[in-house]
Structure formats: structure tokens, C-alpha cells
Amino acid sequence: MVKRLCIFLLPLSLMMACSTHTMIIASNETEKEGPISFTDKNSWWKRDIQQDTIPGVSLNRAVSYISNRKKGADVIVAVIDMSVDIGHQYLQGKMWVNQDEIVNNNIDDDANGYVDDINGWNFIGHSDGKSTEYVNYEYTRFLRRYHALFSGKDSIKNINENPGLFDEYTRAQKKYESQSDYAKRDLRSSKYLLLYFDKAKLKFDELYPSKRPSAEELYEIYKQEKTDKELARIYYTMFMIERHSYTKEALQQRYDIANERLDKMLNKDFDDRKMIADSPDDIEDKYYGNNIVDYNTEFLSHGTLVAGIIGAVDSEHIKIMPVCISAYGDEHDKDLSLAVRYAVDNGAKVINISSGKEFSLHEDWVLDALKYAERNNVLVVTSAGNGGNDLDLAENYNYPNDTDSKGQEMISNFIKVGASGHSVKANLKRPSSNYGKNEVDLFAPGTDILTISSNQNGFEIVSGTSIATPIVSAIAALIYAHYPNLSAAEVKQVLMESGVMYDIMVNAPTKEDKERMIPFYQLSKSGKIVNAYNALLMAENLSKK
């Protein structure tokens, strides 16, 4: 249920500017929520809480409003992520093109250090045209770097001299051990499911030729099967297939990734920079990688999913710049830092980073890059992560970030985004979304979002904070397109203050309290879900000052 509440206190000037276009405020009038059809789910996040009783971002209303107001200018959004399928039919005309480069002449025409960077740059690309697909987790790198310091004959002395660093080392060890246990279980599970996949599909067709049971019903049948272990295994596999919409190819990919998680991501002896041939601990070693930003996008698919959401917000004004730094594992701080600088130097006004990690070896490099973006009026939007954790707690710290050890913001151009759902109920916060009254800035829809897929120019429905983040980035770009005189700090202010606040209790369980509920507005600094229509109204008023 939605109680009566307000978005923010409106100054007199804003009240006057909005005299004919009322800002959206959640109220008792929006309590009558009905079921959402599959068709609605495909675009529910674009809808409006007042007009549709669905907690979307009012994008349809915003586009209708702005189309009658003024013509916008192109805005570049950098997608710092995995590869992007720049040849996808849905992205045609939406990709950034470096006009200062001549295509594939093997000359650095614009003298920026990156040869033939026509659509962007791949910082994990190899000289042979390939790209890295698996890298260490950051805690794996952390343990490798500091193992000798805290395990040798002088370990006690080193611990006493570096107590904070040792605490991080201990935290990394715990994370490594828990992830190793998970990796072994996941490998066994995926191997098991592959083994029974064909048997389960045949049995499924035999037992249920017409009406198919739901995943929940299959799980209940599995639990009740006490006598025939083989049949129980088949029912469990059927349940997993239905629950995750598994194909055999998808299961094979899960098995392959599970293998590589142990062989590469958690392997302290694995050198993921060997083929890149740079020094990951030298920030001045800048010019590496290649210009292939669409390498193996069916496998390295995340960047395409993100780009598809950005392209869905405004096909006329937004140009997408892929900057590749992500593989399976954790990004290198050096790659992230240089990617931010590359995006800024090549004209991006918004940088989308739909990734994060729990440890950082060179946080100072990243912060310097974020400050560089701030000085150049570039907004950086990042995802809060999907652990269901309170990021305000020290043990859940998440990188990249903009706060110091006291929780004070160090820069004004950084937004961290949580994920919301399509029901104005206790699950308005997506269960897996991280949150934090101090560390997370605002929320955006991140449940059942339709976007593009590299698989045969297709589409798919995805969820998570990395999906909520590009919605915010695209709305920011929409503001820049029509109100280019606003600074990055002002665009952040607009997004934070113009959202819709929902005064309802939502699920936020902890290890100690599985039933815990807190007000939605306490999940983030703004307490709100981003709203495109409100943001444009506020931006218009602010741009006149």
C-alpha cells in the first residue's frame, strides 16, 4: 500500500514553473494495483505510478512532454562493461562514432594513443584481436599480493605495523574460502544437471504432454518422492530447468564457467594480464588493448544487455560508447581508471558502470579518475550490487565508491543505484538488491526488464542492479540532451530530488532477522525511485537560473 507522501519540498519558483505540468507524487490514489500482464512487463518500467498504478520511471510521459518542448542535442553515454554487440539491429544508429579516426587504417589519426578507436576501446583486448574472458577475483589478487607479508617469518611484526591492511587480508581470506566452497558446489551441481538434462526432458514430455506444472509444483513433487532416488533426481532437474528456463547450451555454459571459476578466477597462480602485456600496477602504462569492442558478445553478453536499455530510452539523442574492461571475474582498477579517463576525453557526458567488487587494490587511481570526470562535468552512474546487503555496514563495502572512511562524499558527480520491482508491495525493493541509507543514492526498476540479446539479434528479460543503473544513466543523458548547461552535480541533484518516494514497509532481511522490514525511503540517501518526467520538469526550471 502507498501512503500519502511528498517527493520533495518545492521552492516557489519550481511551483510556478510546474503550474501546468504537475510533478508526480505517490499518494493514496495510487493504491489500487492490479496484476501485470506479460506484455506489460516488457515495458512496465517506462510507465507511471499515477496514470498506470505501476512504479515505473514515467518515461513515456517524459518523452511525450519533452517532444513538444524543444529539440535536443546528441549526448554520449559510455558503457564501461563487457563487449557490446555494435552490429545488433536494434543498436543501428545509436553507437558513438569517432569522427577523428579513419576506419582501420592502422593509424592513430586523433593522436589519443588508441589506434582505430572508431566506436570505443577494449582495455582487455589482445594484440592478436582476441580478448580476455576470465580474470581473477580482486580478493584472489589481494591474497596473492599480501601473502608473503602476512605469512612469513616477520608476519607478527607486519601485522602489528599494518593492522588495517591485515584486517582486509583476513576479510579477503574469508571471502576466498567461502567462494571456493561455492565454486566446488556449483561445479558439482551443474555437472549433475547436465547429466540428467536429457532424461528429465524426456520424462517431462512423457508425464506432462500438455499441461505443464510450475517450478514450485515440481519442487513439491521432488520433495515428496521418497522411494525412487533416480526419479527424484529427474524431478529436481526438471524443477531447475523450469525455474531457470535452462537450455542444454545454457547449462553447458554454466558448467564451463564453474570450471573456470576454480581454474582462473580463484587461481592465485593465474596471470590474466599475460596476453595483454601491460603492467597492471603501473597507471602510466596506458596504451594497451585493442579496438574490438564487440568480441564474443554471445558469451561476454553483459555490455549488450546494458546498451540495449540505454538505447530504449532515447534513440534520437543518445550515442553509446563501449569501453570494455569486464570479463568473468573482477575488473582491474587500472582498466577502470583509464576507461573513465578515455570516456571523458572522448566526449562522454554520462558514464555507466554496471559492476562492482568488494575489494580494491588501487582505489586511489579510481578516485582520481572519478575526480577527473567531476572536473569535466561528467556524471558517473554505478550499480549497488546484488548481494541483498546493507552497504552502510563496513563488512559490505562496495567499490567503486565516492565516500571516505567517515561516510562523507568526496565528489559530486557519482550515483550508486539499487534495484526496485514492479509491485507497490513489500517486494518493491528487489530482494537481491543491495541498499544503504548512506552508500546508495537512489533506486530504479531492475526486475523483469526487456533488453536486447546478442543471440540472433534477439531480446531477453533480465533483472538486477546492473540493469537498473543504465535506466538512470539514460535519464541523465535525456536531461543533458535538452538542458546541456547543467553541471554533473546539478544533474545528480535533479535525479536525486525529483524521484518518487514510497512510504511503505519493504522486505530487508538480515542473517539475524529473516523477517526484517524497513521503510522503502530508508534504503537510500534520496529514499526515492528515479522519475524521468519529474526530472525533466526540475531540470527545465534549474536551467533557467
From TrEMBL:
Record keywords, A-Z: Hydrolase, Protease, Serine protease, Signal
Record has ATP-binding as a keyword: no
Catalytic residues in the record: 81 (charge relay system), 302 (charge relay system), 466 (charge relay system)
Domain Peptidase S8/S53 span(s) in chain numbering: 72-498
Signal peptide: 1-22
Keyword Hydrolase assigned: yes
Family, similarity comment: Belongs to the peptidase S8 family.
PANTHER family reported in the protein's UniProt record: CEREVISIN-RELATED, PEPTIDASE S8
Protein name, UniProt field: S8 family serine peptidase
Taxonomic source organism: Sungkyunkwania multivorans
Organism ancestry: Bacteria, Pseudomonadati, Bacteroidota, Flavobacteriia, Flavobacteriales
